[in-house]
Design goal:
mainly alpha; 2 domains; 3 helices; about 85% helix; elongated
């Protein structure tokens, strides 16, 4: 059959789809086996390192300093993130307080313009 004839062959379409699904299944099985192999390799490497550290009587200062450096870097990054967030929030609050103070000053000056002082009342009554 010609592809330009416009005829739809459901069996051919089903066969192509079936082959694609089968290939996807094989790819998933391959990926799973590769991941299992990788995890087993990592597990054995960690086990070997752990045994070396456990059996060695010398203090592992490079490992301790590396762990401390990584911990410090993570804490510094988190501190910088939170400080930056708080600074931005504080800037927004400062701006809104300034705007509120301006609005209050305008309202107070409007009230003060309409207000009569006690001296003026005494002058008017006398």
């Amino acid at each position: 059959m010609s592809s330009n004839s416009g005829n739809f062959d459901p069996m051919a379409s089903w066969a192509r789809l079936s082959e694609r699904v089968e290939n996807q299944g094989k790819d998933i099985v391959d990926l799973r086996s590769n991941m299992n192999t990788g995890f087993q390799t990592i597990n054995s490497a960690i086990g070997t390192l752990s045994n070396e550290l456990r059996n060695n009587s010398k203090t592992q200062w490079p490992v301790i300093w590396s762990a401390a450096d990584v911990s410090f870097a993570v804490l510094a990054a988190l501190g910088a993130f939170f400080y930056n967030t708080l600074t931005k929030t504080q800037d927004r609050q400062d701006a809104s307080l300034i705007e509120l103070a301006k609005t209050n000053q305008i309202a107070i000056s409007a009230i003060a313009d309409k207000m009569v002082t006690q001296k003026e009342l005494e002058w008017r009554t006398s």
